[in-house]
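Reopening this ticket.

The earlier resolution said the output was attached, but the attachment link was broken on my side. Pasting everything inline this time so it's all in one place.
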Amino acid sequence: MTTNVQLPTRTIAVNTTASAGLITHRLHIDIPGAEPDVPVRLELRTRSRPWTPKVFAAAPECLRHRYEDDSLCMWWQGHPAARRWVLGDGLQALIHYVEIHLHQEACCRAGLPWPGEQAPGEHPRKQRCTTCGGNGP
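Inline output:
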């Protein structure tokens, strides 16, 4: 099923499929100042509570804030709900978080410091990253 999600500056087509225990949203977004039309997959596992999304984007690699499965590390689960996405925020808010994260990755790939809040701890650039090779602030 395809629906349109209205964002502040545009409308995005979202293709949604559901199977036992999983809702998948597929869409394309533009990364400000970087890549246009990036395919994104949002997965919501519905068999556990709270529903926590896994987000995958076909943007150039940036391993600094991605999990081992290549999903985006967009917030720290230790933060209160007001500082991360929860189901009640809706799909529009989740897409906005993805846009912000992919913009931050683009800045990181450009050799700039990460332009946003990070979870506690170190977030070194990884030498195996094909875009930065572990170099940069």
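Reporter confirms the inline version is readable. The chain has one helix and five strands. The chain has a mean pLDDT of 84.
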